[in-house]
Design a protein that fits this description.
Chain A has 448 residues and is α/β, with parallel strands linked by helices. In chain A, 38% of the residues lie in helices and 15% in strands. Chain B has one domain: RNA polymerase II/Efflux pump adaptor protein, barrel-sandwich hybrid domain (OB fold (Dihydrolipoamide Acetyltransferase, E2P)), CATH 2.40.50.100. The chains are: A alpha/beta (448), B alpha+beta (128).
Chain lengths: 448, 128
């Protein structure tokens, strides 16, 4: 690490003199006023106590006591206390990315187990040691499909998260890519529309299950059709749902990605979370990111190595499979510890609990006047409803009643200002759900 | 280090063997030895069009991955699928069983951009 060494006044004067500039302001005068800081005269430093006080005051503006019904890709799941105990062990916590990976056998073993867990969860052959987050993982999957097929058209299902779409479009805005999107529906993926768009230039179809609106689908038929035309299928998944749903591996998907937040990472504003990616064995050399493999050392002892590194940028330079160079190792470890604590049966029960509570909430809310559940297919723990009032207004009113009511769709979809997505995790009690229904009833009844 | 007298060579250590309008391509004994044990070969797709000195394939050894460039322009008519199962063929038999692809030549004149076996020997000495 480079230590932070402040310049003394004398240092600054000497440097300015040496390059022949009067003042620091002069040095930057070519930068237009729009882009330059108001002043280079920073206020004097504050004591640690003053800084803590100030930051605490800012943190207090957050409302952290609301009962949370917001989903849209990031969910309020319980984080067992044992997680932070394991995570904060210095052997894990202080290691960034192992630059001499084979010296860090403990971390490599953890990442190997993480990969194995992701494979079990998704029913795929191979997983990498994690990526940044769900959105960038989806972008990496699209690039991978393009490398595998040597084609350049991507078809995106209308049910893929609008947040992910935005990330994908930003990352690819200067690449030679063609995007086709199918219309948004609250239910199953539109088979006919997808079918129409498939052609010999199509590299991949991107699907999401459950989709952004909460709908569960079995994409096996789409995948079969895609394969008959040499097209890959990318599935973006919500990992918790895989405890009960048909897995992407069972459906035949080629690349599976997702965000790991729901696997034991508390909600925060902007991460860090982690992304994961799994694929079929035949595509392993096209997969980006680090892969930890198991082998034996000279004495025949079981050990772990970073494998297939020849695909990576420190060897392949600009021809690397990806220029993502850091995995999200600590967050991935958190995901692994979460999965390990729950175990196979626990994970299944967690998923069932989410499903059942979601169903209870949906059936309860359906009875309220002014709430219309938009549902043409089964849902997991999240569903879309159309309200008789503007969803943003409702969300605001619900905050006053102690609830984070849901994700208003008007933010991303024009004409859907009355729509909201409501997510119900295992943390929501029956009482909370009933109170939520009561509060929502009042808000919708109010004359305004 | 063996240099096959019947072939012509590129500066990137690929060999080319022309028969009628088809050129067979591989890497030289020198190249395979420099790379070390080859663990994977990424082959081009049949029917791909390729330019002279454009990317044809890539080979991975334990610690490196290298691109193989096409000695001539044309259309790929055959690839050596045996390499998918046994990439080490390139190490064992670089001039015979370790061939990589056969290309239908689009411009025979391009052969004049390559080195004869003698020229390649001298090139290796000057490099060495």
């Amino acid at each position: 690490m480079i230590p932070y060494i402040a310049n003394t006044k004398k240092d600054v004067e000497e440097m300015l003199k040496c390059i022949g500039v009067e003042s620091v302001d002069d040095l930057f005068k070519d930068i237009g006023p729009k882009h330059s800081p108001k002043s280079f005269n920073l206020p004097s430093g504050k004591s640690e106590f003053e800084v803590v006080k100030k930051l605490q005051a800012i943190a207090c503006k957050n409302t952290s006591s609301l009962i949370n019904f917001v989903g849209g890709g990031y969910y309020d799941h319980y984080v067992p206390a044992a997680l932070s105990t394991v995570m904060s062990r210095s052997e894990f916590y202080t290691a960034y990315t192992p630059y001499q990976p084979e010296c860090s056998q403990g971390f490599l073993q953890a990442l190997y187990e993480f990969q194995s867990s992701i494979c079990t969860l998704t029913n795929m052959d191979i997983a990498n040691a994690s990526l940044y987050d769900g959105g960038t993982a989806l972008y990496e999957a699209a690039m991978m499909a393009i490398r595998v097929t040597k084609r350049n058209k991507i078809i995106m299902d209308g049910g893929v998260s609008p947040i992910y779409r935005k990330i994908l479009k930003t990352y690819t805005s200067n690449l030679n890519f063609e995007f086709e999107e199918t219309p948004v529906t609250h239910g199953h993926s539109d088979r006919d529309k997808i079918s129409e768009l498939l052609d010999k230039d199509t590299a991949a179809i991107i699907l999401q299950n459950p989709n952004f609106f909460g709908a569960i689908d079995d994409h096996s038929d789409i995948i079969e059709q895609a394969h008959s035309k040499g097209i890959l299928v990318i599935e973006s998944v919500y990992p918790i749902s895989l405890g009960v749903l048909k897995t992407p591996g069972e459906m035949g998907a080629d690349i599976v990605v997702g965000d790991g937040q729901s696997l034991g990472l508390p909600l925060n504003l902007g991460g860090p979370y982690f992304g994961f990616m799994a694929t079929k064995k035949k595509y392993v050399r096209k997969m980006p990111g680090r892969i930890v493999g198991e082998t034996t050392d000279k004495q025949g002892r079981r050990c772990f190595v970073n494998t297939l590194q020849a695909r990576e940028q420190h060897i392949r330079r600009e021809k690397a499979t990806s220029n993502i160079c850091t995995n999200a190792a600590l967050c991935a470890l958190q995901g692994l510890v979460f999965m390990s604590l729950l175990g196979k049966q626990g994970f299944k029960e967690l998923a069932e609990l989410n499903y059942k509570k979601g169903e209870f909430a949906r059936q309860t809310l359906e009875k309220i006047k002014g709430v219309e559940v938009k549902r043409s297919s089964p849902t997991f723990n999240e569903f879309t409803v159309c309200l008789s009032k503007d969803a943003c207004y409702v969300v605001e009113q619900m905050i006053n009643k102690g609830f984070a009511a849901g994700f208003p769709l008007g933010r991303y979809y024009k004409g859907m200002e009355h729509y909201i997505i409501i997510a119900v995790t295992e943390k929501r009690t029956k009482e909370e759900i009933l109170n939520y229904a009561k509060a929502l009833k009042e808000v919708l009844k109010d004359k305004s | 280090m063996e240099v096959n007298d019947n072939f012509i060579y590129t500066k990137e250590h690929e060999w080319a063997s022309i028969e009628d309008n088809i050129v067979t391509v591989g890497i030289s004994d020198y190249a395979q030895e420099s790379l070390g044990d080859i663990t994977f070969v990424e082959l081009p797709a049949k029917d791909d069009e390729i330019d002279q000195f454009g990317d044809l394939a890539s080979v991975e050894s334990v610690k490196a991955a290298s691109d193989i460039f096409s000695p001539m322009s044309g259309k790929i008519v055959e690839v050596n699928n045996d390499l998918e199962v046994e990439p080490g063929l390139i190490n064992k038999s670089p001039y015979e069983n370790g061939w990589i692809a056969k290309i239908e030549i689009s411009d025979p004149e391009e052969a004049s951009n390559l080195m004869t076996a003698d020229e390649y020997r001298k090139f290796l000495e000057s490099e060495g």
